[in-house]
Fold each of these.
Amino acid sequence: MSRTHKITLIPGDGIGPEVSNAVVRILEAAGAATGVAFDWERSAAGAEAYEKYGEYIPKELYASIERNRVALKGPVTTPIGGGFKSINVTLRKKFDLFANFRPIRNLPGLETHYPGVDLIIVRENTEGSYVGLEFEVVPGVVQSIKVITEKASTRISEFAFEYSRKMGRKKVNTVHKANIMKMSDGLFLDCSRKVAARYPEIGYSETIIDNTCMQLVTNPYQFDVLLMENLYGDIISDLCAAFVGGLGLVPGANLGTECAIFEAVHGSAPDIAGKDLANPTALLQSAVLMLHHINESETADRVQQALENVYQEGKTLTKDVGGNSGTMAFADAVVAAMETPVTA
Ligand code: ATP
């Protein structure tokens, strides 16, 4: 008899539906082989949801996440400049998904400028410059408020150190700009230091955000776990994605105490939407994180192993990583790799 997991699925827009379909196909094949079934509760969000239901985040979507406590989410476009508030940011705040966890690792067989990278980005997910507090003071003068609290800074620091202790990671480095933002980043730094003092077995260092960018590009191997506030985490994630082959590859998890939403680092990539060019690897690796989260590690390992075999073989890759296969052809190759016995 199979175990069934109810999971909220937000396909998203842009390349979202293509990568979501590919990932669902792979997960169902893996689940069929390991006795795991998925009951997907699908929901639209963003502009598409507004057209259908008159709401950017339908009430049923909130209810579904509250019920299931786990969601797999494709990218949802955030309008630039004006328009509605980011759906991603709204969901993270609504469910208090305070920790954004993004592992940056190379896939076997995929040549990059930086082989053997193994970095963890821990991004504070609920405040900083993403609180959406912007005002026009007088015409021509706009104020944007960055909020840093002791509570959120301490809990994200504790998350980074607890994760490091559990996974045997050696060092946490806090990224900041406390030389300029002395009070806000100063408080973040102060909280990190206090938490670091409680974990003497784990190394601790600090780097200023601009220098961090240069240090990363010069030698990413000097870092292990990178801890930072919201905006810096957004920027550093895209930078680090380039180490391992680009945005098509890097997964993410938004974790809270009650719920979790798993989503890729990339956005909706409208330039390649609907063209069968999107790489579903980032969402697939996010789904692998999700499978571990729901204690389905055997299924997770099966998917990850098949994915790595496809990269190792290098014959059925998407265009962004140098191949010429489409999104679904890539998914089919991962499914076929699951059916091939793995040779040690
Ligand atoms: P956001 O700010 O919404 O996170 P972004 O600025 O990170 O978005 P993306 O939409 O992620 O931008 O995409 C940037 C570019 O990277 C795209 O134009 C596309 O060419 C490429 N890209 C992103 N995701 C993928 C993917 N899954 N497969 C292939 N290419 C991708």
Amino acid sequence: MDLQLNGKTAFVSGSTQGIGLAIARSLAKEGASVILNGRSENKVNEAVARLQQAIPGAAISGIAADFSKAEDVKVLLEKLPEIDILVNNAGIFEPKPFTDITDEEWFKFFEVNVMSGVRLSRHFLPKMLAKNWGRIIFISSESAVNIPEEMIHYGTTKTAQLGVSRGLAELTKGTDVTVNTVMPGPTKSEGVADFVKQLGAANNQSFEEAEKDFFKTARPTSLLQRFASVEEIANLVTYVASPLSSGTNGSALKVDGGVAKFII
Ligand code: NAD
């Protein structure tokens, strides 16, 4: 299948590792020019070099910006060229008891997980509407509809993304611009792999043992009963980014291994 991504330019926020890097890799493999992003210049340069090596001839560049700092985002928006595809992927998570989460932490989670996408979309949606083509994709989570009791602040930001995404889709009526959300389930990104390794180490377990335990106790409804690979998430995002997905707008698409137990 030709995904018709040749000649398109994409920006993927938070793409120096994990799901974001896999999305960037997949879009680049399909012929899109891709702009990477992360907090530090070093990590961005490393990720750009890694992708350029993996996909010879691909047009990969990068811009460092920290989405917890509004000033960084302002500078980023000044540096970014016109784009066709915006993937709002940058996100943070941290298990913490509800009573220990401070106001500052709540606001930081909203700043990084929600306002990053709001600020980027506010900048790019009007431009996409003006040229009558564009894709905005929010990377939310099944946690948006299945709020994890061990990180209520995280789950709440993921629910907020669903609202922003659907609201923005309403603004695209009658155009070839689409705004959708992809909802991954437990996925073996670097961030999550580190978290599971730590869990395992605390209980004298290997990664595989900790993974098995995690699905037995924390995510028993998973039909996959393992972490998804980052590529499994990137495959769906790449399709949604493609002109071929033109019939899908205002949707929240699950790629959660069946964790969320409802049908739609
Ligand atoms: P990760 O921790 O492996 O990678 C996160 C990326 O975001 C990194 O490139 C990091 O540099 C960047 N980032 C973090 N804070 C940033 C900031 N302040 N400014 C700029 N960049 C920043 O994470 P991941 O697991 O790949 O998650 C990516 C997205 O997928 C997140 O939005 C997350 O909520 C969502 N998600 C992940 C899972 C999972 O199980 N891994 C499940 C559902 C949804």
Amino acid sequence: MVERTLGIVKPDGIRRGLIGEVLRRIEGAGLKIVALKMRQLTAGEAEGFYYVHKEKPFFKDLVNFMTSGPVVLFVLEGENAIERYRQLMGATDPKKAEKGTIRGDLAESIQCNTVHGSDGPETAKFEISYFFSQTEIITR
Ligand code: CMP
């Protein structure tokens, strides 16, 4: 099934000049980028995006981190895109992520883990519509 998923290059990835490297890996894996923009998130936007984690002990630090610099937001499209992009990213904790994955090769820590990706169809729907209007997504 052709799916769409929401991805983010996080502030640590941008600080280290990894936008191109992340997008190269995504395109190399055959996933289509159908929307793309750079934004500085407000605290309110980051809190709303990560609301499912609001009770977690790392929530405040996560919001501070996600607003510490700009992020690159994108929508990917492809057959089984949600799971394929998750495989490409690797585990949340870079210590557990396999070599060859984005986090395994590039991420600094469980918080500064370089990229985000939706974890399932419902989340993808919410996350895409959180940051992109329909007219910002290319259909071809
Ligand atoms: P992400 O996949 O974007 O989803 C939640 C984010 O919280 C995660 O990546 C990390 O950036 C951050 N985070 C910080 N500490 C933890 C933790 N202990 N477990 C999971 N996520 C964490």
